[in-house]
Design a protein that fits this description.
This protein is of the alpha/beta class. The chain has one domain. It has four helices and seven strands, in the order ααββααβββββ. Strands 1-2-3-5 form a four-stranded mixed β-sheet. It has a three-stranded mixed β-sheet with strand order 4-6-7, with no helix packed on it. The chain is globular and about 40 Å long.
Length: about 170
């Protein structure tokens, strides 16, 4: 019985350590993790949009490309972001050196439990910095630019992801 328990524990550890789909990750995906994701697209108003169907893909928008179009295809529970990046939470999409210039379409889905705690920094929120050409459909997604802001309480209630009108 002890051998079976040890094998099961090792198998479970391997599944969690490798970040298989359906198993909660311990930390934010790395650039290497992001490059391994398979992205599908759909057409909206004649343009291709990358489908965001997981918390990991939401975080990987920065790596996939800040000028691309994205559509949320399911509700996302982002509560595990409270432990990401040493407790700093979700890494905002875009920054002053790389602004989000694409389009993010919420398609009526929600992102709940998103945690961002980056005291002493600016440009925090789901989108850190959005270029004038970038569209997220709601100005409050880029709010929270004041240094020392803690966004975890702000995002604790379900928030409907914005939809963008063509």
């Amino acid at each position: 019985m002890g051998t079976l328990s040890a094998v099961l524990a090792v198998s479970l550890f391997a599944a969690v350590g490798l970040g298989f789909v359906g198993v909660a990750s311990a930390d934010a995906p790395t650039a290497t993790d992001c490059s391994g994701f398979s992205w599908t697209t759909q057409q909206l108003s004649g343009e291709a949009y990358y489908e965001v169907d997981s918390l990991e893909k939401l975080q990987c928008i920065q790596t996939k490309g800040l000028s691309n179009n994205y559509v949320l295809t399911s509700d996302i529970d982002a509560s595990e972001t409270a432990t990401w990046n040493g407790g700093k939470g979700f890494d905002p999409i875009g920054d002053p050196n790389g602004k989000f210039t694409g389009t993010f379409h919420g398609d009526g889905h929600t992102i709940s439990g998103l945690s961002i705690d980056r005291g002493g920094t600016s440009d925090i929120g789901l989108f850190g910095t959005v270029s004038p050409g970038g569209r997220s459909g709601a100005s409050d997604w880029t709010a929270g630019r004041s240094p020392g802001a803690n966004m975890s309480e702000r995002w604790s209630a379900p928030t409907t992801a914005p939809s963008v009108s063509p």
